[in-house]
Specification:
The structure holds two protein chains of two kinds. By secondary structure, chain A is of the alpha+beta class. Helix content of chain A is about 20%, strand content about 40%. The chains are: A alpha+beta, B mainly beta.
Chain lengths: ~230, ~325
Amino acid sequence: MTSKTPSLLAAALSLTLLGSGVSQAQTYSATDIIGKLDAAQKSARDLSFRLSGSGSFDGSAQKIDLSVQSIPASSLARVVFAAPDSLADNIVVVNKTEVRNYLYLTNQVTVTSTAKMAGQAGVTGIDFSQISNVSALLKSYDVKVLSATGTAGSRLFTLEGTPKAAGTNDGKARVYVTEAGWRPTRLQLLDSAGKTLADLSVSNYKTNSGLTAVRLTTLPKDAEIIRQ
Amino acid sequence: MSSLLSLFQSRAGLLRRGLRLSVLPLAATFATAGATGLDFGVSYAPAGGTLLQDGLLRIGVQDLPLAGFTVAAGLGTRGIDAAFGRSLVLPGLGVARARADAAVLYSGGVRGALSLSGTAGPVALTLDGGAWNAGLTHFDPLARWAEEAPDLRDGGAALGVSARYRLNREVVLSASGTLGGQSSVLAQAELRREALSYRFGVRAGQGVLGAAAGATYTDPDSGLNAALDLLVGPDTFGLTGHLGLDGVLGDGSSLRLFAAYEPWRTTSEVLRYGAQASLNVGAGTLDLEGYGGTRGAAGQGFGLKAKYLLPLGTPEETPAQP
């Protein structure tokens, strides 16, 4: 995968971080849908969901299974891995200033500041500070509605994001959003040739389940901290 | 949220703490902190001498970024110490980390240690080496009762290698060896079933041969963690365990009790036990510790330690409560 693909994934993931809203039967443009998701983000106090599916890295397919919990207002998110095996039980906690990665194998926590991550954006393509700020993130992406299927009231919209920045053809990210509840249901990453690199479905989507910042940031106390 | 890709392909460091050599417990504290901080510590283990002889007062700085390295240094009533560390996260490749520790006593006596570790995917590897010409207890009076059995020889060198390999979601294979005062190798397989993890293997070396078995229970909701390890062989016996409670004294606090009875050890104390409490006080963290155990061939001893760590510089982000 190219270096830009992760940023598309960030865009797609940020879209999926948003909560639910109420819809009317009407045609929506990409701007409309994003506006609804943005508004919903401000109303959801916390949300959690499970991402599962598969991804192909370096040619081989890997099972992906992770759970995400987030408090959008604090730009706080927690990701716990269940698959692939080599990453199972690893935890990533992201807040405005740093990314903490708990490594199960060695009982350690690596701490990297988001500033440093942004500085490495050319390698990973991720700007963590933007992860919960959809409108800012999408300034650098072109998002359009690919298709809308189903009956009014419970349609399934397919949003596709491509990076605005000129340059090599870096692929796209697709998010499937259901009108019923404005929930994301599926997330796909495609390379420049249109081949699917990752296909993840969203399940167990919950909002306002009473998550606290303390619970999201908890990591084993006896883990060794490594600062980069 | 990081890229799924870079997370899948990388990110780890040293091995589980229990497998590392604790050659320099003083400087090792620099790895447990958050941001750059100052720490003040006082230890005392009565041994028939004066307060100054049996105690230790130390002030230090931790996690100080300097010329690309992370530096820790300390000045105490017994000597000075410093540690330099550098870690490199390579997305897609792994993480590599190097650390060098050194400590010098005013009365003469030097300890040095070097640690290299790296991880790529499901494999983690650590190399530890150290050399010294003064016993560990001269540097830290309570080090003899540390949970990880330290090498208490008055002079010598030691080399350690540890490898961990994650076979699949449930199984981790680990092997660690020490070459030094009492050379031995421990090979284990760890099995995880939800909150419980079991391990079994073999330990063999100088004066030790036996089957090792252990279990750990971790409950992230209540913050309770407990472990028990048993070593049994024809002439060998060992029992170690710990009980921990995270968050029992307030957010971010922890309480840990441990005990170790290992008559097979020839370079460490056979009986070691202790209690450690860590709680947030004001802007920093207060650690209160008590230790005890055998003191060589001359009966028992005990000691107390209090340490306060005050973070400096950019305050850590405190997530707003919803």
